Amino acid sequence: MRRRLAVTVLVAGLGALVAAASARAYVRSHTSKDNSPLAWRGSCAYLIPDSAYTPDVSSDEVSAAIHDSVSTWNSTGCSYFTLKIDPPEAGGDATMERPVGKNFIVFRRDSWCPPDPTEPCYDSSATALTTVFYIDKPGDPHNGQILDSDVELNNVDFAFTVDGTRPPGSGSKTVADIQNTLTHELGHLLGLDHTCYDGWNPCEAGGRCKANNLACQTEDDCIPLDDHGQRIPRCSDVLSTEVTDATMFNYAQALDTSKRSLSQDDVDGICGIYPVAQDPGSCSRVDTSGADGCAASAGRATPGGGLLLLLALVAALFVARRRA
User: Fold this and answer.
1) Long-range pairs for 256-259 at CB < 8 Å and ≥24 separation?
2) Which stretches of the chain are DSSP H helices?
């Protein structure tokens, strides 16, 4: 099963969609079989930038953007979880279809398609995808444990910048800010989901939600819950500023940089999943030997009239992979 979530860049802005502030809440990602929340079990995860980077900006600028995105999530003060950065390696694009214990960040420059040629290519309006492999075995004590996660950035259909300027030679490509994109994607890697619902989990004919197998009578029964147990709003609703200001909000402005910093919802989310008082005190690389399973992902089509930056989580399920 596959699900792809999107961050939309609207040329005219989001003013018509925004209402007054409401109570803060965050949204977690869940398994497909019993809707258990996802999380890493140790105190850290190691990220590996693919050494190919992007031709749009210098390798030093890409490296700085990655470090700044990581620092944003590491600096909340109330979460024990730490993202660490390994030296760059080549060949990260070959690891996206299976959990290998290496969490790559890859700029795809030649093809915006998965490594498996039997799978369809990604949505060309997606700026990035994060694939998260996790254990999806109800009743297992490790159910919901994240094992591996990879971020892919779409350098085929998008150009990337670090300073708000269009890179030379980028033509008419939509330009996305690297740090803005990565900070959102790393939120997915950590187990957070989008703050409004865009239709990825319909109630199917058999009375089950498509993405998480919950019983349903209407699609409303399939809309995710926030940390207060309330259904999150549909993205087509009039949304509160608490929803739209979050780094994990589905939509963004062209050349947006607002997602570089976390809102209180984002901070509450990471600290709710990984509170300091529950630090397991174990920072080690995940052993994925013997990992088996299939994959699921999710997606949102490009709506007419807007420029799209789909900061999509590709959450790959370790028995059902999901992409967003």
Assistant:
1) 256/9, 256/177, 256/180, 256/309, 257/164, 257/177, 257/179, 257/180, 258/180, 259/180, 259/181, 259/183, 259/184, 259/311
2) 59-74, 178-190, 241-244, 264-273
Short-list 166, 153, 132, 123, CA closest to 29:
132
Structure tokens at 97: 């279809």
Q: Which residues of the chain have pLDDT under 70?
A: 1-24, 93-96, 290-324
Radius of gyration of the chain (CA): 18
CATH superfamily of the domain spanning 8-323: Collagenase (Catalytic Domain) (3.40.390.10)
Distances (CA, A) of 141 to 21, 135, 138, 144, 224: 38, 10, 8, 9, 23
Measuring CA to CA, which residue among 208, 210, 154, 206 is closest to residue 182?
154
Query: How close are the terminal C-alpha atoms of the chain, in Å?
Result: 12
Q: From CA 267, how far away is CA 26, in angstroms rounded?
A: 9
Instruction: Convert the pLDDT of each residue in 52-105 to its tens digit.
Output: 999 999 999 999 999 999 999 999 999 999 999 999 998 776 666 777 888 999
Amino acid symbol at 173? K
Closest CA to 252 of 312, 199, 192: 312
* pTM of the model as a whole: 0.86
Q: Are 272 and 293 in contact (CB under 8 A)?
A: no
- Domain boundaries defined on the chain: 8-323
Mean confidence (pLDDT) of the chain = 82
Q: With beta carbons less than 8 A apart as the criterion, state whether 173 and 157 touch.
A: yes
